[in-house]
Amino acid sequence: MSVVPDTTTKITFTDNNTKFNTAGVQFIINPYDELSLTKALEIVEKNSGTVTVATVGLADSDAVIRKALAIGANDAIRINAEPVDGQFVAEQLAHVILEGGYDMVLTGRESIDYNGGQVCGLLGALLNWPSVNVCTKIDVIDGNAHFERDIDGGRETVISSLPVVASAQKDLCEPRIPNMKGIMAARTKPLNVVAPIAVDGFGHYSSFESPSAKQAVRLFDAQNAAQLIDALKNEAKVI
Amino acid sequence: MTGIYAENSEGIFKKSVLEAAAYASQISTDGVIAVCIGEPNAGEADKLSKYGVTKLIVVEGLHSFDAQNYSKAIAANLEGIKTLILANTYEGKSIAPRVSVLMNGSLATNVVSLPDMSNGFTVKRGVFSGKGFAYVQLNRENKIVAITPNSIELKENPVSISIVKTSVSESEKLTQITSTNKTAGKIPLTEAEIVVSAGRGMKGPENWGMVEELAGLLGAATACSKPVSDMDWRPHSEHVGQTGITIKPNLYIAIGISGAIQHLAGVSSSKVIVVINKDPEAPFFKAADYGIVGDAFEILPQLIAAAKAAKN
Ligand SMILES: Cc1cc2nc3c(=O)[nH]c(=O)nc-3n(C[C@H](O)[C@H](O)[C@H](O)COP(=O)(O)OP(=O)(O)OC[C@H]3O[C@@H](n4cnc5c(N)ncnc54)[C@H](O)[C@@H]3O)c2cc1C
Ligand SMILES: Nc1ncnc2c1ncn2[C@@H]1O[C@H](COP(=O)(O)O)[C@@H](O)[C@H]1O
User: Fold this and answer.
1) Are β-strands A131-141 and A144-151 bridged in parallel, bridged antiparallel, or unpaired?
2) Measured between CB atoms, does B98 come within 8 Å of chain A?
3) Considering only CA atoms, which residue is closest to atom 8 of ligand 1?
4) Size of interface A-B (CB pairs under 8 A)
5) The pTM of the whole model exceeds 0.90
6) What is the ipTM score, two decimals?
7) Residue B68 and residue A132: Cα distance in Å, rounded?
8) Which terminus has fewer CB within 10 Å in chain A: N or C?
């Protein structure tokens, strides 16, 4: 589960554009991870088992991790390191997954901050498990996982044995929100902090940039909308 | 040598694959090898050679998509290749991370620029769902780069191409596809050069006929805002934005969409943005190149008529 800036955040950078400016930013559960968490809970309720949340992050992630526990996860592991890049994160997660002996790992389709869309496939390869991306349905029936996933220009249904790693796409389920009972229970659920393993550098974020500002909009008269088509054709040359 | 994964869709190489080829040929000094799984249609290899691909390896023996089997086949056939370019499609993104583990490489997805190789290998990639870009230096010797469709110029570099066939055995059926449902004839949203999108301002699903008609005339894909797909007026696969699909077409036409920050996140990299909204204060106008303040139900028929006239 990744912890990301709230979706309304205005994104700015500091330190000569080398760092994301976290001043005043509220952090939330990555929206796709709200889906994977909810789906994991649904799966263990229908079958059996427990749900563990694993996050690579520093202590400032704990409040958001508690929220995941309040939604219903049984326990949490925080790997105490800054999540500098998807490959680093996946190596850390693969290590705790192997130690924990899990049957299924669900990630989000992508994190809405770094948008790598990498972790699901990386985990599959690191663990030598099958991986199924962008799933809109996930069920476990008789020890097999059944998926529906988005493909370029359509959808597909897929069956896999366990263990398997899959990523959540919108439409997978209605995300659950914590209730009072859950919030109380979360206070005493285990949140285990573990040290990261040593892995060497894959990539390095050297600097950031904001999208270039737009020029003022050119308006056309509502009575004469045909002029717009003319401008798109002859001026912007996009149709 | 630089490699590309030439994803094929029913035997056809889509534009995103040609972009990968153009990208690879601009950074390679000694040719480009493409790997493709399953036999492409006649004439398709020539499309690749136009953009600099000197050798096409056709891998046979894999009968359905499985990320693990595909990645193994790609990595095995690209031994010795240091840089692999793929399209950042759903298929590309299912494969790229797995190949990067097999190649022990550095991976960058969502890439929108050619690399700066003056000091290492640095690419620009989209982050924060369209609200920013990051420059990432790829440190490992092997590099895997997945490029966002529509971000790389299709620069021609015609060469002659050799084709070799090889075959792998589908050792284990790791995942099994039980059904496939493709929206036939429709342009996939992520690859569309023109997108006509509409929001809650359209009032109800029964009014989408006009949106589809305009899209049809412009050769565009259709998209929508989140509430529209949440209410099932349109399929969720059309939902663009922070929690939907991120797109980068040449032209994005937004009709009856307010322009919330989460919506803009998915579309703001479009080259030209047109906004049609009856509220002159709608935030979307701040992100637009062209706009019309007015009622969509009056403006769409005029646009449809003008698009028809422009076509003839
Ligand atoms: C966590 C989170 C994630 C989100 N992710 C996304 C996302 O990925 N994508 C997304 O789109 N939204 C997303 N949203 C929702 C977003 O905040 C907005 O609520 C949504 O984009 C609004 O959709 P809309 O513009 O269609 O509807 P509205 O905000 O209701 O706007 C309708 C617009 O239509 C105009 N209009 C009305 N009638 C007419 C007419 N006859 N002619 C012309 N114009 C007319 C109105 O002036 C108005 O501007 C997210 C929200 C949250 C909290
Ligand atoms: N720091 C992190 N800790 C735990 N899981 C993460 C972290 N970053 C990403 N993930 C998972 O990987 C998914 C895809 O992230 P990404 O590959 O960064 O787009 C997210 O939705 C999470 O499920």
Assistant:
1) antiparallel
2) yes
3) B241
4) 266
5) yes
6) 0.92
7) 10
8) C
